[in-house]
Amino acid sequence: MSHDHGHPHEHPHGHSHAHSHTHEAAPVDDTTAVAIDTAVPDAELSPTQLSRRNLLRAAGVVGSVAAVGLGHTAPAAAAATGPSQPRGRNVVNQWVAGDHHIHTQHSSDAIYTVADQAQYAKSYGLDWLVITDHGGATHARIGVDIVNPDIRAAREALPGTLIFQGLEWNIPSAEHGTVFVAPGDNEVAVLKQFETDYDGSVNGTSSSSPANEAQAIAGVQWLGKQVDDKRIESALFLANHPARQGIDSPHEIRAWRDADPRVAVGFEGAPGHQAAGLPNGAASGRGFYTNAGTNPNRFVPYPPESFRTWGGFDWMTATVGGLWDSLLAEGKPWWISANSDSHFNYLATAARGPGSNFNAEGRYRDPVYSGAPDETAGDFWPGQYSRTVVGVNRPGYLEVMQGLRDGRVWVDHGRLVKGVNMVVRRPRNPRSDSPLGSTVAVPRGTALELSITITLQDLPNWASFLPVLNRVDLIQGSIDVAGPADRDTFLAPDTRVVRSWDTSGTSGTIELVQPLGNVTEPFYVRARGTDGNYSQPGYLGAAIDPQGPKLDVVGDADPWEDLWFYTNPIFVTPL
Known about the structure:
By secondary structure, this protein is α+β, with helices and mostly antiparallel strands. It has 12 helices and 25 strands. The strands form 5 sheets. It has a 16-stranded mixed β-sheet that branches. Strand 4 and strand 5 (176-181) form a beta hairpin. Helix 3 (114-123) crosses helix 4 (137-157) and helix 7 (210-228) packs parallel to helix 8. The longest helix is centred in the first third of the chain and has 21 residues, at 137-157.
């Protein structure tokens, strides 16, 4: 299962990817000294001290005497990981590409078999995928049960491909979300009970209300309890197409994450349905983002621009200093992904099997050859256009889930690049164990630099052309773990693009290095790159984002002409 998604051991100057822990002592400021003293309860800390403790907790530093005065790196979600997770999870030995949002004939609005989706995913270079048929009365009654044998058969037929069972949750009081669990004896029972008890469509809890918001929180917590009770080994939830309808309010997103950070880990940075923007196809919005902000349950402060994609990415992610950054600026591990949301795929030649009765059978009958390519479909096959690439210590179900939980993830469209690896390190020190999603805790005043290693594309993508990376942007923001007083905040005023590199005319593997100065306050960094075909000042203005993604035109947005990659962040905090 070794595909070329980037190689963490390859650097242009012979750098290795070994661990690095520096053994020089340094003074610890009073705020940090109190924050790491576990004899002082949280209630007795000042807001500043509590903020520092929370960030150091996320780095796994609080309570560790050996970490005082030493460089320390840990997954940002370390405080939320359980004992069942694989050891060595912070070591990236391999990058594996996947898709966590895929529909089959077991969804009322889809067509393909599990085998169809899995085989195409493999052929398009994916290592893992999640089957996420829609939650609803029929699915809860029989769909969860009858799809499982198909998934198990696909696992046997494609032993090198990891195939998870999940579902698309109708989140109470909100949009949709991917929920999936580690394979095991109870995967069907847990998913079935979860859908029956907590799905908004099943229980009539879809409308916006405090009571329904509480149901969503209870659902996340219930999944975490199944892990604690050892019914399943792991469970994850990611919110899907979060800005499409405008009904995922900022306080709800924060509440999901806070309900159980082991389970609620992120949202789609880029939605599926990317082929929908093709002018000679569906001629709609990329992601079918065409809502005009008329949903009665919408969060009213969201602006009209939020209901559209920007360079194929959701407004919450594409806006530098926007909602995603507002979460990161609180030091919250909250990650992005990209996927196909495959239902009906562009130019596929399939029709639903004759005699289908979805409500009675819980599925459509196997598709048959139609003889005509579907030129109005809005989706791509899994892996054909979108990828979520996860760093793992070794391939495996728990390892992929842990990589997603820890934020060791970058995403791209159209195979813009072959590989991305970003680390924070001491200057000119090629060794680092700070992969994406990490929190790097170092003595106050330590000089650090950022290194982004990119393996450029040398093979045509699935549209039969060679993508070219022409620009890379570095985005940086400050952190205040106490967070805003208003949990509906969706801005991070201190976040901005701090540097851009012109990468046109390069080839092979390149390394981009940015000095980060001497660490005195907590901050985070993330990166994005583009083919440079379509850019405009970001939603919050050119002073924040001089060349951001362009607002997609509904009906005329060829996704192959506008390619981007995004990384998850690395957090940095002084001791």
